[in-house]
Amino acid sequence: MKNFRIYKLLVFLIILVISSCGSDDEVIYVSPSGTQLVQASFTYSISATDPNVILLNNTTQGSGEFKSEWNFGMGDELVLDQPGLEELRLNGAGSYTIKLYVTNAAGFTEASETVRVDEDGVCPSNICGGIDPSSLKGAAVGFSVGTIVRDNRLTGMHDEVIRRDFNNITSEYQMKMDVMYPSQGTYDFGPADAIVDYGVANGIDVHGHALIWHNSTPDWVENFAGTDAEFEDMIRDYIRTVLERYKGKVRSWDVVNEAIADGSNELRFDDSVFRRRMGADYIEKCFQMARDVDPDVLLFYNDYNMASDSGKRAAMFAIADRLKALNLIDGIGAQLHISYNGPARSEIQAVVDGTVSRNLLMHFAELDIRTNPEENSSVTALSSERALLQKDKYKELAEIYTDIPTANKFAFTVWGLKDNESWLLDFWGVPDFPLLFDSNFDPKPAYQGVIEGFQ
Ligand code: G3I
Question: pTM here?
């Protein structure tokens, strides 16, 4: 009998998550007895008299007794909801994740909203900085438009273009382990701090990339002399140190990048010290380490060839399913380094469909579109014919992204600002023009293609 009682308690703790697609991130926990709990829900508006004050309205509806408590995203205690509107002042620029917990006899539900603040106060509809509607971010509805940055590309024309067109930034390489943690016990957060501070100062979301990646592992980690248990402790300490440093400033992280081996679609082994030292469940361990430090930061798995390789796509969704079962993943990053002539729209759509069906956030994370996939080394300029084909492909990506349900939208990020800064030039060693701006920061037809696709 005692075992049965324990079993009932365990079953009760096994919860079914039925997510709604409302404007908030709403989570409904339904106990097996079928007692529907009260679904937390709230809205907010910006004070007419003070741009840094929001008025929170608890719109939770439910029968019977229930308690509502606020977490204002500033690391303080829960605050009991009072009748009427709650006034909340948000002074510092940045993103605040506000949560409402509602508890009744059978358990609790939660709803959350992220509110962006810049130097002018709370950003209307989370769009900061007096948006130019003809800009990339001005044309995007319900998601941000991102680009990559480096600490030495945050001034002058880079700064002007970033602030006009983008509201999400990803560090191209300076928030990776080989830069932030060059030797054991010695961190170098200089470049990362510059990037994060720039994002916070300008009300631009910062996407952290990438905590764990086999291609950006410092030598001392590759050759770690301790035991496997000591290796795992070191990784836990690294993830804790980084996430605590940027808590409330970096809104999201690629926790693990490119774990799947091309061809086999198994987890990389020979080229992944993490897989070798932490075991087959290293991805779950790393996500758990991140979640243990920051319950509010959005956690992503990121990889490439998701559209062009259906086997790799299936392997990626299997990882996502394992992480979702543990309630550890918020989104998927599809890098989408593609060409003007492929992959097909249907293959890109398959990545979106698999992500949306799992109710995860979709990040088009590293967009660039090769105009010279034939690797013709005699190409000296972007022909108008290829420029228009590239425009059509960017427009296709933007249309696919715009059609994603609001609850699954996150960011549409290009992997570079202007053509001559693209990693592809060194990688392939031939001329190419893969981005939205030419080498003079002038928008190309591809830029217009994205705008048209967003509309
Ligand atoms: O800026 C320094 C320079 O001062 C120094 O002299 C030189 C030699 O050490 O290094 C330069 O930094 C290099 C940086 O690119 C800028 O060129 C780094 O060593 C080099 O590792 C870095 O490569 C980056 C690569 O990831 C590895 O981190 C690329 O910029 C970046 O575009 C690339 O991005 C990856 C994504 O993270 C994951 N998906 C694939 C994508 C393309 O490989």
Answer: 0.77
User: How far does residue 183's CA lie from ligand 1's centre (Å)?
Assistant: 18
- Tell me the C-alpha distance between 75 and 208, whole Å: 20
Of 421, 428, 427, which Cα lies nearest the Cα of 436?
Answer: 421
pLDDT of 127 over the 80 cut:
no
Q: Phi/psi of residue 438, each to 5°?
A: -80, 180
- Tokens 């990784």 label which residue? 235
| pLDDT > 60? residue 34 | no
Residues marked active site are found at 258, 366
The phi, psi pair for 168, rounded to 5°, reads -155, 135
Q: Looking at the domain covering 131-454, what would its CATH class be?
A: alpha beta
| Segments making up each domain of the chain, as ranges | 2-124, 131-454
Using alpha carbons only, what angle is made at residue 132 by residues 129 and 137, rounded to the nearest 5 degrees?
75
pLDDT at 257 > cutoff 70:
yes
Mutate to test the pocket of ligand 1, among 173, 268, 271, 422 (most ligand atoms within 8 A of CB): 173
2-124 shares its CATH topology with 131-454: no
Tokens matching residue 265:
């679609």
* Rounded Cα–Cα distance for residues 302 and 255 (Å): 8
Cβ distance 239 to 274 under 8 Å?
Answer: no
The closest alpha carbon to 144, from 252, 23, 67, 286, belongs to: 252
Q: Do the Cβ atoms of 371 and 387 come closer than 8 Å?
A: yes
Q: What is the CATH number of domain 2-124?
A: 2.60.40.10
CA-proximal residue: ligand 1, atom 36 (nearest): 172
Measured in Å, residue 434 CA sits from the centre of ligand 1 at 17
pLDDT tens figures, 78-126: 999 999 999 999 987 777 889 999 999 888 888 988 888 887 888 877 7
Q: Give the C-alpha separation, 318 to 205, whole Å.
A: 29
